Amino acid sequence: MAIKNDATVLAFEKKLVPSDGYLYGTTWKTDKEWPKSSPLKLIEKSVRGTISNRLKSAVQNDPLKLNAEVEKPNLQKVDACALGENQDTLHLSFTLKVLAGVEKPSASNGAAFNQSYPKVAQAYIEQTGFTELAKRYAINIANGRYLWRNRVGAEKIEVIVNTGDNQPLTFNAKEFSLRDFNTSSPELQTLANKIADALSGKLPYLLITVDAYALVGKAQEVYPSEELVLDKGKGDKSKILYQVNEVAAMHSQKIGNALRTIDTWYPDFDQAQIGPIAIEPYGAVTNLGKAFRTPKDKVDFYTLFDRFALGEPLTNKEQEHYVMAVLVRGGVFGQSGKD
After folding, report:
1. How far apart are CA 180 and CA 276, in angstroms?
2. Could you tell me the pTM of the whole model?
């Protein structure tokens, strides 16, 4: 009879810890040095929009009712953010801390689990050195995925990474695909090696500073994170953007999601044609309303982890990479005593 995962209380601290991203405006460099950036502030706009939602059939088929409906003013107050009139480049800056210790849960009450899991995790570290995951994280730093909508339509994107040794690494983000992880370069390998050393415990920790510059055009609108406000009252702003000390900013969670968008191992990767998805226990992609890793197909995190943590071999190395990537992401993975 196979041993079951007996840990009902189980948690792992995240090992990739991004800060919030701060948005600045500047001009594209004309020499080797970047000109000074200035913080971007949010702007409040009041606009008179039009009714554009899908209408009921009774209204659609009655010209008088339709005219009456579209004549109603759609008054909105929204936050916006844009570069200054003499600025053409968005500068996004954040830091990323990489930690070791994935072989040690922050909380676990399973006796069998506590005996088997550290050995299995240590074996994975010794066999792989986290090189595959580290390369994928490094590519997502180099390709500027964390710029999200700000990346679309940017003429040029340069990413400067400082790992603390006073030798900044410079990447042309356009040279790195968002859809695969087949790229390689000496600078990328240097960054990946440092991330791998930190994850595997050869370094106590690694603090990376990332500065991404995107040439988007003079006075163009840029896109900080949008706040989720559940209790909007009538007349309140319909869109509230994120800011920290009056500087437009990107949520650390959004940056973290971009960095861990490395899962090309899910079953429908070739058919889905959407590229890598973020590392999640059920492969959830919320904007598509779909889970790509289901318990029914036995490819979700919990199914694989319960086998992996107790020393059972998984089908291939890719499944091990996925399980360890979820643990690097961190979270609470215990189980209820009730079914």
Report:
1. 7
2. 0.93
